[in-house]
Specification:
Elements: H1 3-14, E1 23-25, H2 30-36, E2 39-53, E3 56-70, E4 78-84, E5 86-88, E6 91-93, E7 106-114, E8 117-120, E9 127-132, E10 138-141, E11 147-152, E12 158-161, H3 166-169, E13 170-172, H4 173-189
Parallel strand pairs: 1-11
Antiparallel strand pairs: 2-3, 2-7, 3-4, 5-6, 7-8, 7-9, 9-10, 10-13, 11-12
Length: about 200
């Protein structure tokens, strides 16, 4: 897949100076998110709290699963998702590019377990808000503000951009699910593709 590209990109990013108000990462489309994430679910945010981890605030959102597209979680299960940032007492922190969750929001999330909890793959790239447009169609959109995307040119230079085609940010939900299903099936047919080999011990 992208092994050599990823290695070169990481080396380039290590020497890269960029906007302090943006997080630099590799661009992930829906197919790549589906390959990478061990857990993909639609759900509703039913509770939130802020906690301190190593002296810094993190926001934990509880998401009740409505549909599962990858992984062992089933409808009705509740999964805890943590993102850096939030307000805890007098301590406040905002992390550029982190996914933002709101209580009662319906979401489609691409998750990976880390130390007993779950985080969105690619930060804000791994969370879509599900909403209904004026025509009555359900759609998924993601907020990529605070993210700069890095890519290597053919000349070996690193270029940064915040531009994405509108289709990458806001799509009919049926198209999103179709892309996810095709990618998940591809991982089953081709073991060399990224697959959900990680433990899902953090998902409850």
């Amino acid at each position: 897949m992208r092994g050599p590209f990823n290695a070169l990109l990481l080396l380039a990013l290590a020497a890269l100076s960029t906007d302090a108000h943006a997080t630099v990462m590799q661009r992930l489309d829906v197919r790549e998110l589906a390959w990478t994430a061990p857990v993909i679910v639609e759900g509703r945010v039913v509770a939130q709290r802020t906690l301190l981890m190593q002296g810094r605030p993190w926001t934990e959102s509880e998401i009740q699963v409505l549909e599962s597209h990858k992984g062992a979680l089933r409808r009705g299960a509740v999964v805890q998702v943590r993102q850096p940032g939030g307000i805890h007492g007098r301590i406040g922190m905002r992390v550029a590019g982190a996914a933002q969750f709101k209580r009662s929001e319906r979401v489609l999330v691409f998750l990976r377990p880390v130390d007993g909890y779950n985080v969105p793959v690619g930060m804000g790239q791994g969370k879509f808000e599900i909403y209904t447009d004026r025509a009555g169609m359900r759609r998924g959109r993601r907020d990529l503000s605070g993210i700069s995307f890095a890519q290597l040119t053919l000349q070996g230079r690193v270029e940064l951009t915040r531009e994405l085609r509108p289709v990458d940010q806001d799509q009919p939900l049926t198209e999103l699910i179709s892309t996810i299903q095709a990618a998940v099936q591809a991982t089953k047919r081709a073991p060399s593709l990224p697959s959900s080999t990680q433990s899902q011990g953090g998902a409850k």
